[in-house]
């Protein structure tokens, strides 16, 4: 499909080490590109912590198959970049619509301000930044003040605020902000991509044929990894291994490893750290089940990838896709307690038939409802409605009818 629509996505970092938002932007660019939409992105060269991406600066380059223009990150806090701001001021009028990602950081807020001043329609995707957990547990007063004085007016002036799930929208509504919601779950699955059955898990798992429980997420307090360790330790079945895959705060990792020792399960827990795409596919191909015990999750990309791989998933009610998992019988939704998580793990491990049925149901649901093609069509249609001055549509992960 051809289109003259030009879209610019703005995010502080495209590094995979930063977790879900960078994956979402990549998938948005890919989904729009499949429809002939001219979509590209700008970001800083942030690569997590003090690291920088090894990329050319201030020109569009191919980054993971997408057009991205990188600018120097000039401060670690808020990822400030004066060159990015200058470029946005000079070039933002070249685009029909601007789509920003995340809050409480320089790039999306600068882009939204400039777009508002130039009267260019813009969409803001908070990526869970307005969820109640994050607002309560991290810099509460600073964030509340910032939302009132900075983010709130920009969100109110946006053509739409993009939430991944109805749960994320309902959490954001608790702040009393005036905004136009666009509830649109991001597509993950490329229907044309063949399943690669030959991929291998990390070397740390070579030769280990035990049933594998997979945790695949950036290590952060919100992910509640300690709850998972305690639930795993309480299992009567000791013939399984828990694989903890994901980077994060070294001090948090150290405390979790000490907890595993205290619980007497250090011999049954594998810490494989951050894995690239090939390593992730290897883990998903090898795993028996996937678990995401987060206190709050605006979407849950890793859970979607696990369902696409045919794995039963265990998530909490705080996960944005909990209703999707429950509705399709793709896994078990728990209340996030140690006891409930232990019970869910035990149930799936005890029945190959149950696990297989959940895995098949999840794979079928994801391919039908969360494909890149379906997502690309919905996203382009939403942009075009906004450009015509119409209200943005609301899509649930399982659209009625």
Low-confidence stretches: none
Going by CATH, the homologous superfamily of the largest domain would be Glycogen Phosphorylase B
Can you list the strand order of the major beta sheet?
3-4-2-1-5-6-7-8
Structural class: alpha/beta
What CATH architecture of the largest domain do you see? 3-Layer(aba) Sandwich
Total number of strands: 14
What share of residues is helical? 40-55%
CATH topology of the largest domain: Rossmann fold
In CATH, what is the class of the largest domain?
Alpha Beta
Can you walk through the features of this model?
It is a single chain. The protein is an alpha/beta fold and 401 residues long. It has two domains: 6-187 and 371-387, Glycogen Phosphorylase B (Rossmann fold, 3-Layer(aba) Sandwich), CATH 3.40.50.2000; 203-369, Rossmann fold (3-Layer(aba) Sandwich), CATH 3.40.50.2000. It is 41% helix and 17% strand. It has 14 helices and 14 strands. The protein has helices at 20-33, 82-91, 106-118, 132-137, 140-157, 166-173, 225-233, 250-262, 277-286, 301-308, 322-328, 338-350, 352-369, 372-387; strands at residues 6-13, 38-44, 60-63, 66-71, 97-101, 122-125, 160-163, 181-183, 211-216, 240-245, 269-271, 289-292, 313-316, 331-334. An eight-stranded mixed β-sheet has the order 3-4-2-1-5-6-7-8, sandwiched between helices. It has a six-stranded parallel β-sheet with strand order 11-10-9-12-13-14, sandwiched between helices. Helix 8 links the parallel strand 10 (240-245) and strand 11 (269-271). Helix 1 packs across helix 14, helix 7 (225-233) packs across helix 12 and helix 10 (301-308) crosses helix 13 (352-369). The longest helix is centred in the middle third of the chain and has 18 residues, at 140-157. It is globular, with a radius of gyration of 21 Å. The two termini are 26 Å apart. The model has no long low-confidence stretch (mean pLDDT 90).
């Amino acid at each position: 499909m051809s289109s003259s629509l030009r879209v610019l996505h703005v995010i502080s970092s495209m590094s995979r080490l930063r977790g879900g938002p960078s994956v979402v932007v990549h998938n948005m660019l890919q989904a729009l590109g499949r429809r002939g939409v001219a979509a590209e992105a700008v970001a800083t060269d942030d690569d997590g912590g003090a690291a920088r991406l090894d990329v050319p600066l201030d020109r569009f380059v191919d980054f993971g198959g997408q057009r991205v223009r990188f600018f120097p990150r000039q401060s670690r806090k808020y990822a400030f970049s004066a060159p990015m701001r200058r470029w946005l001021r000079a070039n933002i009028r070249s685009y029909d619509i601007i789509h920003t990602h995340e809050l409480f950081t320089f790039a999306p807020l600068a882009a939204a301000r400039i777009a508002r001043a130039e009267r260019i329609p813009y969409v803001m995707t908070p990526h869970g930044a307005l969820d109640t957990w994050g607002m309560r547990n991290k810099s509460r007063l600073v964030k509340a003040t910032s939302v009132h004085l900075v983010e709130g007016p920009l969100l109110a002036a946006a053509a739409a605020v993009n939430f991944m799930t109805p749960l994320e929208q309902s959490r954001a509504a608790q702040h009393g902000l005036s905004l136009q919601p666009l509830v649109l779950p991001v597509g993950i699955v490329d229907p044309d991509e063949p399943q690669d059955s030959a991929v291998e898990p990390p070397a740390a798992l070579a030769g280990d044929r035990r049933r594998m429980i997979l945790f695949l997420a950036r290590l952060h307090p919100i992910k509640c990894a300690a709850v998972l360790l305690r639930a795993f330790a309480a299992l009567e079945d000791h013939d399984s291994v828990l694989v903890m895959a994901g980077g994060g705060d070294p001090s948090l990792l150290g405390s979790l490893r000490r907890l595993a020792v205290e619980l007497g399960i250090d011999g049954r827990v594998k810490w494989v750290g951050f894995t690239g795409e090939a390593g992730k596919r290897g883990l998903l191909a090898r795993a028996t089940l996937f678990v995401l015990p987060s206190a709050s999750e605006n979407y849950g990309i890793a859970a979607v990838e696990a369902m696409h791989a045919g794995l039963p998933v265990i998530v909490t009610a705080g996960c944005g896709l909990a209703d999707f998992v429950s509705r399709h019988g793709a896994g078990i939704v728990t209340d996030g307690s140690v006891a409930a998580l232990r019970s869910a793990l035990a149930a799936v491990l005890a029945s190959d038939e149950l696990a297989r049925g959940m895995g098949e149901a999840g794979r079928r649901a994801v391919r039908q409802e969360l494909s890149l093609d379906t997502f690309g069509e919905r996203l382009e249609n939403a942009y075009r409605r906004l450009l015509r001055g119409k209200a943005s549509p609301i899509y649930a992960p399982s659209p009625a009818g």
